[in-house]
Amino acid sequence: MAKETANHKQNALNKGKTIPLKIKRLGINGEGVGFYKRTVVFVPGALPGEEITAQIEKVYPNRAEAKVKSIRKKSKERVVPPCPIYEQCGGCQLQHLSYEGQLKEKQDVVRQAFERYTKIKPENLPLKTTIGMEHPWEYRNKSQLQTAKDKEKVIAGLYGLNSHRIIDLDQCMVQHPETVRVTNAVKKILEDLNIPIYDEKKRTGIIRTIVVRTGFETEETQLVLVTAQQKIPRKELLVSEIKKRLPYITSIVQNVNDKKTSIIFGDKTLPLEGPETIGEKLGELSFDLSARAFFQLNPKQTVKLYDEAKKAAKLSGTEKVVDAYCGAGTIGLWLAPDAREVRGMDVIAESIRNAKENAKRHGFANTHYETGKAEEILPKWLKEGWQPDVIVVDPPRTGCDQAFLKTVGKIKPKRMVYVSCNPSTLAKDVHMLISEGFKVESLTPVDMFPHTAHVEVVCSLVRDK
Q: What phi and psi, each to the nearest 5 degrees, are found at residue 309?
């Protein structure tokens, strides 16, 4: 008995202990995953196939977290991260993995989710290869960087990995160069004019966040200054200096956020110069984007994502389509030219207004939008004699509402297209949809955010006759 206890102590994981570890796969946050005496160990920076010495940092009842102490056997896919602040920043998680390796591992993350949460046999999983980018850099059309003072210098960036210290980003390889150029110029202007910068601890100062969004197709750019109060000292001088140094900016607006919160935007937005919106195009569709409007961060891949959704919908021109959780109606409008009718719903009234405006602007007469929950509106339409052939859904990371999934089972559309930004919640929801009479026809991962751990998936489901 005493010998068993001694062995257990020797095998037990505790903080500071170094262990040999073979990395089996990547986790959903991009960390390496290995097993030590049946305990799962997560190691950021480690890659599948690598043999490492890991140092335990945290121990939980069912898992442990560690850091790489040394790599004994290196992955062939390991590369030197090109970004000089990659390890401090934390905005990207996979720059140390070749791009081909990233696409392969993202496909595997989807496979793992379906193995874990569904009963589909691995050999029957219709999983395609990940759709990547030809140039997987400079793809983000929007930056939101917190400001701070470092001695007399104004900095703007992201909170460093596992810290509350802002890492100044004067360059970023995944941002559109225009967003970087504008942010750097605005930092210098704020510094030159001595405009007070917000201090989160003391809750003093004015400028909290610099937000820049640029249109890939229109080349229009909007600058948003998020402030802790409405009054900005030397406001006219600030605006005229921005116009002088950045004459090509389309729109300058102020957003007021006086709350103690990590949420970027407040409720009040005020125009400072130019129109309140900028334009952007996705394929044949054009959009007016206000400061707080949601829009996909990677327009080039969004076209590929929506084209996959259209392919999965298999429209012939006769189908009635529902765009559930429709937001401003983007996916539904993408499908509208090939559908008989598109109907959408969303709980946010402002989104429904935007969807109606977008449909009208593009001349679609075959769309209809209502504010409310899908699980309440779908049965109402069914009672009125309107049954959809295809339901398309693009929910938040938390996945679909259970009541909605049960409603879909009762409505019995011929097919469903589920666009997901979270493979785990997708797999859980698909498990439920299978019990409601559906089967998975295809799964296509799409890399919307190269060099990060995120992966989107287009899942096509059909009624299992």
A: -65, -40
Q: Is 421 a catalytic residue?
A: yes
Task: Supply the pTM of this predicted model.
Answer: 0.92
Known binder of ligand: residue 230? no
Place of tokens 């960390």: 31
CB atoms within 10 A of CB 14: 9
Q: Is the backbone of residue 442 left (phi > 0), alpha (psi -120 to 50) or beta?
A: beta
Residue by residue, DSSP assigns 284-332 as TEEEEE-TT----S-HHHHHHHHHHHHHHHT--S--EEEEET-TTSHHH
pLDDT in tens, the chain (465 residues): 544 444 444 567 999 999 999 999 999 999 999 999 999 999 999 999 999 999 999 999 999 999 999 999 999 999 999 999 998 888 999 999 999 999 999 999 999 999 999 999 999 999 999 999 999 999 999 999 999 999 999 999 998 877 778 999 999 999 999 999 999 999 999 999 999 999 988 999 999 999 999 999 999 999 999 999 999 999 999 999 999 999 999 999 999 999 998 899 999 999 999 999 999 999 999 998 999 888 899 999 999 999 999 999 999 999 999 999 998 899 999 999 999 999 999 999 989 998 999 999 999 999 999 999 999 999 999 999 999 999 999 999 999 999 999 999 999 999 999 999 999 999 999 999 999 999 999 999 999 999 999 999 999 999 976
Q: Does the annotation place 108 within a ligand binding site?
A: no
Distance CA 72, CA 20 (A): 9
Write down the catalytic residue from 92, 326, 421, 459.
Answer: 421
Q: Strand 51-59 vs strand 18-26: parallel, antiparallel, or unpaired?
A: antiparallel
- Asked if residue 296 belongs to a known ligand binding site, the reply is yes
The closest of 96, 206, 215, 91 to 154, measured between CA atoms, is 206
